[in-house]
């Protein structure tokens, strides 16, 4: 057989948990091979084994039929294996080229030949249609571009096999389309790809075969042409999954969040929110649809007190909350599932238990007379962990050691459990498996039915259309349209998000 | 989790061992017998009660400066200023000890508190500058060290004395010295300060592991963005960490002023108690118990080394090199590990 990579009967243990238990994956030359599994199933771990970051306890890895021992990522590089991690590893103040040659700098008389490197990087980029500017600074380019830099990095080091760990989780729909084109170009050049994704549609669109992992065990490999989304979901979760969220019609009551003529600047002092008006009422879910960079982040940071506003008002239950400290905002009844979970959502070096009380640690019963009561803290944590199915060896495990999806579930558990009057959910299901997404959506709707106001920000139009009771389209710092999900579709939303229908602006019921 | 704990204990032990080995090679290279050398070192630290008493005496301020630096480290701050905080604490303690008249149960606590306060103020200034203006604490604390050194000299000469090189001895009511402990240890300078230092270690453990303050300080040290998001004041915590850190270092100074020496002398250079505290904190993995153990090791090395020239004929300079090597290996292993962790954090 013509396998470029074979991972046979791999087993990898962590203290208290078997992350990979007898998993076999065989990658054919020139195919895109999907890895599918629930959050914490062991996908990233398996790929980290292939990339030499972890050593397996049992099993064997073969590259082009030859048994190999991948002691570290350098060995993986030499064997032509490259990995694009979900969380990028780039040096922000450096240029694209500097980042790419880091660690394998071409030198001439002991001096780095940056011009030559730039030419090479540019050539590579053009060859695969990546459209990366080799001289741009990382801090100046978008997330999608940064990902392409990571791709270039692996190509520059001569990778034949590329591993992508949830590459589409951080991309906008347009960027996802482009990434797929890039992957096709890579295959056309004779590369092979392993793709981890939770989006079944993507697997159907672009992959040739799919290996399913459930709770650390290999379930099997299927030909994508011979399967469908429902079957894949059932294989991975072990039960049937419903994709359409069931819900009653909303019965909104009084206005909880009322934003008038809001202006907010970003860190470079450029106005990003420009006279925005928005209402969210108790008992409804308002979805904000928009292309990334149209003021969503600034809007959320202004509401939650992380950023100062420049003009306008934000009222929560008729009380002004703009420019209050984050703690005051939280205490007045705002919950926030942040978009960037590693930056804002978690203290990665704290145990999960202590992350569960990140905003409430100073309150009774977690603390009395300024002394922490760990018994109460961990009791709370244990109960949330089981209610929200956060897969972790224990509540004492550091947040860093959890799988990406389970970190997200822990944050959602914390925020939803406080049951705030207003819950802001920014990309709440990013990186979650279909089962977990279904669960989170149910939770959001449950909160709504309890009479809470929910503001949902998402780049996934599916999610917006599915969960929202009302959709507010954001463009260039303003809400340009309010539509109801029953009377619209992805095409119309797409046009609105591109700013094509300005006359609906101000139609803010 | 478990393997991590082992790692924490194993790394310092291995590095001490490598340091001792490197020292042995140096001694061999210069034609001295390393076994004799180390036996002399050991005897000099534990050989008889006098040496043991001196080791404890030296351990006392090391515990406190180690705690000071470890405390700041936990919040992600590098307090190089422990040295200066020691000096102002020492001066403040001697000042109270020489000028105030009070019964012992008031005099000693008063002197300790004022010393801690002096250190706290010396930590407060770089803390505020960091929090408000973003000035790096390393730069400011280094400058504060020099300000402390020369101000203390000037105050000793011009305020506490009439142009003398050292202050008067403190009143007996302010002294931590103990005839009983001295008698027990063949007249070493061991004093009651060790109890204060051990108590301070318990306080540090309690603050860090059990209180709201400790939770916030650690959180800010690990991730400022998430801490801000969670409603903590990053600025307030930076200042607070420097203040508490400075108070520990100030207390270390009072150990010298009220215990070991009973006065303060004009000095042309630093005492190094504060700088050695950096190595103590690193070796002790920034934990209270670790700092106590590391301080004991450093105390023993420092005191035991004095015996190497006389008993094993190893010249003073070489002794300094050997001690420095041990410290070097201890510190570098930690710095390397710290850097690795930093990178991992940034990467993930
Ligand atoms: N460094 C680590 N130390 C301890 N446990 C770990 C470590 N890395 C992963 N695990 C555990 O191994 C299991 C598998 O994690 P992994 O990250 O491979 O999941 P995943 O399939 O990539 O999930 P997701 O889709 O959520 O990213 C999880 O239970 C996780 O808690
Ligand atoms: Mg993963």
UniProtKB/TrEMBL annotation, chain A:
One of its GO terms (cellular component) is plasma membrane. It is found in: Cell membrane. Keywords: ATP-binding, Cell membrane, Membrane, Nucleotide-binding, Repeat, Translocase, Transport. It is a peripheral membrane protein. InterPro entries: AAA+_ATPase (IPR003593), ABC_carbohydrate_import_ATPase (IPR050107), ABC_transporter-like_ATP-bd (IPR003439), ABC_transporter-like_CS (IPR017871), P-loop_NTPase (IPR027417). SUPFAM superfamilies: P-loop containing nucleoside triphosphate hydrolases. Residues 5-240, 257-501 form the ABC transporter domain. One of its GO terms (molecular function) is ATP hydrolysis activity. It holds the Pfam family ABC_tran. Belongs to the ABC transporter superfamily. This is ABC transporter ATP-binding protein. The lineage of its organism: Bacteria, Bacillati, Bacillota, Bacilli, Bacillales.
Automatic annotation (TrEMBL), chain B:
InterPro entries: ABC_transp_permease (IPR001851). It is a multi-pass membrane protein. One of its GO terms (cellular component) is plasma membrane. It is found in: Cell membrane. GO terms for molecular function: transmembrane transporter activity. It holds the Pfam family BPD_transp_2. The keyword Cell membrane applies. The chain crosses the membrane at residues 7-30, 80-98, 104-125, 137-156, 190-208, 238-258, 278-301, 321-340. Keywords: Cell membrane, Membrane, Transmembrane, Transmembrane helix. It comes from the Bacteria. This is ABC transporter permease. The lineage of its organism: Bacteria, Bacillati, Bacillota, Bacilli, Bacillales.
